[in-house]
Amino acid sequence: MKPRQVLEIFAAAQRRTEPKSLVILRAFIAILFFIILICYMFVQIEDVRLDTPIFSIVQSHEEEKVIPMPNVYFAYDHQFTISCQINGRITKISQEVCLTHIQQPVLSSTDDQTYKGTFKSNGLKFIRSDIEKIDFIFTVNNLSNEILADDLGIEIRIFDSEAQDPLDKFKETNIHVADIFSSLIDLNLYHLFSQQHHTVELGRTKRKIAKEFWWNILGIPPTFVDETHINSHLEVHPLLGAPANSYSKLTFVMRTWR
User: Any transmembrane segments, and where (predicted)?
Assistant: First the structure.
């Protein structure tokens, strides 16, 4: 008799003599064993994954001699206008050229009673020991005590002009990287108030962000992409020497350590 025939006879005997409850119990134990095995494998893979820098951000604080001027978004509850002046020790940039980078505020089509404008640098740069600041003057039309009574100030948001702009045609498809950029929306958010001179010192941070993909759960190291963002510090002083109808003044200053 062949071994296969012996196994078939044994299996048939088992099917005739085993109670149904025992078959169910064996199946349950087998399923439970496989669940435990899968969970154990997941724990081991997760441990390996966490040992790799999938979510880490490598950051550099190296000072730069040249940084791009930022893109700036302005929003206010009342109609206002913006003028600007770039001050260079060597390089001279006229006010007319500066104004070409400004989109004057218009009533938003999505937010009722909110006027929005932008400054897009389009290649303008801060240069240490030369172009180290840019001034903006804000004028509010028909400024009155009634407007100032419940004034929330002009809202500004500042972004690195050479990085992806989370408010303008953002196309990042990797969820983890997109979340990083989304977190920058309120990083450099300020409100400018009447009769004050706001000075914002700007620096630039370089980072390498891990792009997460499904195979990283197997412990495969991720790829990294370069990302930069603006970091800033605000100082506020009384507004002095400005035209009588000026609402406030904003100055961006390149951060230097000299």
Answer: 21-43
* Model pLDDT, residue 229: 82
Q: Based on the domain organization, do 72 and 154 belong to the same domain?
A: yes
**Does 116 score more than 90 pLDDT?**
yes
Q: In terms of domains, do 33 and 89 share one?
A: no
* Alpha-carbon gap, residue 145 to 224, rounded angstroms: 53
Tokens at 147, concatenated: 């407007």
Name the most confidently modeled range: 90-99, 206-215, 240-249: 90-99
Q: Work out how many domains the chain is built from and give that number.
A: 2
According to DSSP, the residues that pair with 87 across neighbouring strands are: 133
For residues 227 and 148, state if they share a domain.
yes
pLDDT the model gives residue 111: 73
Give the separation between CA 251 and CA 241, rounded to whole angstroms. Answer: 14
Q: Let me know how many helices (H) and strands (E) the chain has, helices first.
A: 5, 13
Q: Are residues 147 and 182 in the same domain?
A: yes
Q: Which residues form the domain of 190? A: 57-254
- Beta strand ranges found along the chain (DSSP E): 57-60, 66-68, 71-76, 80-88, 102-107, 115-119, 125-127, 131-140, 154-159, 189-192, 196-211, 223-238, 246-254
- Let me know whether 88 and 196 are in one domain: yes
Confidence band, pLDDT 50/70/90 cuts, at residue 72: very high
